[in-house]
Amino acid sequence: MNNPTRTIISRRSRPAKEPLSKDIIVKTALELLKSEGSSGLSMRKIAKALDTGPSSLYVYVTNHQELSAFVLDAGMESVVLSNEEGVSWEIRLYETLHSYLTVLMEFPGVAGLALNTIPIGPHSLALTEYILERLHEAGIHSTSAAWGLDLLMLYASSVAFEQASRAENGTTLQAISASYRSLNDKQYPMIASLQSELITSDGEERFRWGLEAILQGILQRQSKFGI
Amino acid sequence: MNNPTRTIISRRSRPAKEPLSKDIIVKTALELLKSEGSSGLSMRKIAKALDTGPSSLYVYVTNHQELSAFVLDAGMESVVLSNEEGVSWEIRLYETLHSYLTVLMEFPGVAGLALNTIPIGPHSLALTEYILERLHEAGIHSTSAAWGLDLLMLYASSVAFEQASRAENGTTLQAISASYRSLNDKQYPMIASLQSELITSDGEERFRWGLEAILQGILQRQSKFGI
DNA sequence: ACCTGAACACCGTTCAAGT
DNA sequence: ACCTGAACACCGTTCAAGT
């Protein structure tokens, strides 16, 4: 098959422009999202990055919202489903959701999509399946498992969304603490007395705290009511 | 001072246009949000509703984001802080957060703002103070109270946001259940087996379930670690 | 079958000019 | 001090026209 006389068949001179495809559109969109934040996810910018006009994209994607759903799922590809041997379901769940959070924060804008979009792409489904497996291991079944899944993903997504959108808006912690400090402590005594606790933000520890609170809540509700 | 000869001084003929003010801008914006969804919250539409050009708004508001923050707080005015006598902190908290959820869903778009924006307006602060009071009653203090507050508000806001944005996108429950039904149950056995539970959606009951799970989680973490 | 240009109906924001 | 018009730099989407 490998005829030596045809050695220099050379890469057949590629057309100046590679043809478009859903795949490279989604990939380009994801890169733009990473480099420019959620304003990078615009039909026009994606088109420009691909050296074409916005109308060209509509051959591969029916509208901006559908593209967003694809981008979300593509982003989910890099979530690591923790699968070490001999590690408790709880730790594996935490590690995985932490990875999910990290991915969402790496691509600002994807977090918004995660709340907007029904996660039915293959990578999202893999994550969903994984979480349900861990809950099953924990003895959480049926309605508790379904609603618990929802609660856990909602938690991680909204933490990421809150974080990302405040970062994009340039909301500094200082601005928040300044506004709390200026409060009338007669009118808002609880807020005033909890000032420093409200501002504290080791994100990592806080995220874990919330996750464990939710998990314990789910477990306890289940054992109490046997739902 | 009241000279009878000047009786018919009459309401001095008002100018054809009432002067603008931050107040009526915010009120108009809130109405548009209610009637048109989150796309109603645009400088141009608000201006048109006030029969002026968009540039006029910038006298009273520095930009769209600041206006959004005002609108969010104005929306919070109608949250009912449950204050019946002899009712447990838990029920009062549930009722109040349910009212918060209802308000957020009545104004689609406000839910997004609640996640975007630091809630430092007077009505938001009143709600914050109220929740901290109830947590205090429940014996939840310090870091647990601060983080618990955050978790509860994040929960209600994100449930509303998810609901509202799916409503705006026209995502039907049927679409979701159809996509779950079409799944390969070898690849996603857990999802397949929990199909009906995943789709179930008595919003009310589900919201309450999540809220109680979170509260129990907070209470238990506190008693366990004494944070 | 795919790509393009031009157009339509929108955005937020600025700024010189008017009263 | 307030309001206006016009402009700038953006959006998503459509559609007739080209290859």
Automatic annotation (TrEMBL), chains A, B:
| Record feature DNA-binding region, as residue ranges | 42-61
Tell me the ranges covered by the HTH tetR-type domain, including all copies: 19-79
Q: Name one GO biological process term.
A: response to antibiotic
The record's section on InterPro entries has: Homeodomain-like_sf, HTH_TetR, Repressor_TetR_C, Tet_transcr_reg_TetR, Tet_transcr_reg_TetR-rel_C_sf
Q: Print the keywords alphabetically.
A: DNA-binding, Repressor, Transcription, Transcription regulation
The record ties this protein, via Pfam families, to: TetR_C_1, TetR_N
Q: Name one GO molecular function term.
A: DNA binding
Kinase recorded as keyword: no
- Listed PROSITE patterns: HTH_TETR_2
UniProt entry tagged with the keyword Transcription = yes
Q: What is this protein called?
A: TetR family transcriptional regulator
The scientific name of the source species is Paenibacillus ferrarius
Recall the taxonomic lineage recorded for the source organism: Bacteria, Bacillati, Bacillota, Bacilli, Bacillales
